[in-house]
Amino acid sequence: CWNTSKKYSTSTFYNCSSQLSNFNDLLPGDATNKAGNHIRMFVEWTNDGKLLQVEETSSGSPGWAARYYTWTLSQISEYVPIRYNNIQNVLIPRPIFLAIISKTDSVTLSWTADESFNFTGYKIYRKQLNAEDYTLSVTVPKGVKTVTLAQVPDVHYDYKIASYHEDDSANELISDIYSVKRSDAGKQILIVDGFDRYDGSYTLPTHAFTAYTAKAMNKWDVAYESCANEAIISGDVDLKDYEMVWWILGDESTVDETFNNIEQDRVESYLKQGGKLFVSGSELAWDLDNKGSTADKAFIHDYLKTVYAADDAGNYSVSGATGSIFANLSFQYSDDGSEPETYAEDYPDVFSTTGGSVIALKYGNSQTAAVSFDGSVTGATVPCKVMVMGFPFETISALSAKEDLAGYILRFMGYNVSVDINTALPEEYILYQNYPNPFNPTTTIAYTINTPTYVKLQVFNLRGERISSLVQEYQSAGQYEDNINGTSLPSGMYVYRLDVNYNPVEVRKMVLSK
User: Fold this and answer.
1) d(C-alpha 259, C-alpha 284), whole Å
2) Which in 61, 75, 106, 224 has the greatest CB count within 10 A?
3) How far does CA 443 lie from the centroid of its chain?
4) pLDDT of residue 62 exceeding 80
């Protein structure tokens, strides 16, 4: 990154760098160094005052790799801030996308950034759904943090904001990606991005979770806008303006807060006036109920209608609860992030019902994955609707499954959508990660095929010897599961392969640990 003339060790960085007087002086491209031990490249300050840094580390999977992590200053007391003596690149801030709101015939974007940097301005990029590339819509100077653009109704667009310097125009820092589809019928759904965490199962400084969610909604002829939870906290965006709110929490947890006190107040007020709320996230019950304050517990019990039951479901298969509107659903979500537009989910919440809520979705081990509620919350005289899910919506493995679940959520919320699971064909052949993994002695392997075809599902050891042929038959389009029992097998790594029409489609690894 520094383009040094030779290799320096952690104990000799002083030969090419200078120590800064204060951690607050750190700029992108600087570093923190524990002499003789370790160095971390500084990226930026997070919204809650942590240092986002990159380090080369052996922790995590698959071993040695450069990864993003966040630290508080108290956690790096043995490190000192340093700057490379010959640093030359211009410095620019990362824009924080706040909201994209529809108007009568246009949309308005707003953002914020640290403008103490010496940079030129911002570029606004957008693309229609499924377009290959973004196009530059407009460039605005430093100091401008809102822009209005013409947009036709009923068309989905993804937007992102980049800061740049005219002397280094190829070097840009990009915001999160937000989506909008305006409608002449007025405001319908607000997608709230409440995921700010960097050091959980998702570790990059920006994401496109809002776009993934909107992509699944797009099929059902509804309009939507997007905002960051900071816009809810500031009051710049009012939940009460929308028929429905879809709140994204990812794996936001105790350190970053799922719902702070202001957000709780906003949600309570929205539900009391008859709002419709869907929330997904893997640590919300852990944060609010298991580790929360008295006020946090009252909020999750009385307004989200959810009780914490367990920290980790240990299962990645989900189906609709018998007798519920979701009964026809069956899908997988990702444990390793290998599927497109997903990330690894490691601690999916397990719920219990409370105060009139019912089970909506169940994990493959029969534990509760989501609850729903239709009625009046504490302090209200009009009914509202709430659904809370214990794993992130954006980790669902297949787009078709995301679309199906979005359709059923919209149906539950009162939207007139017709979802026919039996005729919805998956868009591709997909082999999912087995679950559990590692396993002892049994595990489940799931896969999806898009047309009637001849299917083979086989298991091999690392010498290439076939251990088992789980499937060898013609199958109709759909999603399937098969189990393997490793009682007679030695501990170790195995691979399983999906063949379609006698051609290998995908191979995955699994570990038997006795």
Assistant:
1) 8
2) 224
3) 26
4) no
Total residues found in the chain within this entry: 514
β-pairing, 453-461 vs 466-475, is: antiparallel
Alpha helices for 192-347 (secondary structure H): 209-217, 229-234, 261-272, 284-285, 294-302
Given a cut of 80, whether residue 312 has pLDDT beyond it is yes
Closest C-alpha among 506, 351, 367, 500 to residue 434: 506
Q: What is the reported pLDDT for 156?
A: 95
State the residue for tokens 């909506």: 360
Return the SS3 of 455: strand
Q: Does the pLDDT value for residue 422 go beyond 70? A: no
Terminal alpha carbon distance of the chain: 44
Specify burial of residue 123 (Cβ count, 10 A radius: 0-12, 13-18, 19+).
buried
| pLDDT at 44 exceeding the cut of 70 | yes
Mean pLDDT within 1-29: 86
**401: Cα separation from own chain's centroid:** 16
**pTM for this one?**
0.77
Q: Are 215 and 191 a contacting pair, CB within 8 Å? A: no
Question: Each residue of 147-164: b (16+ CB within 10 Å) or e?
Answer: bebebeeeebbbbbbbbb
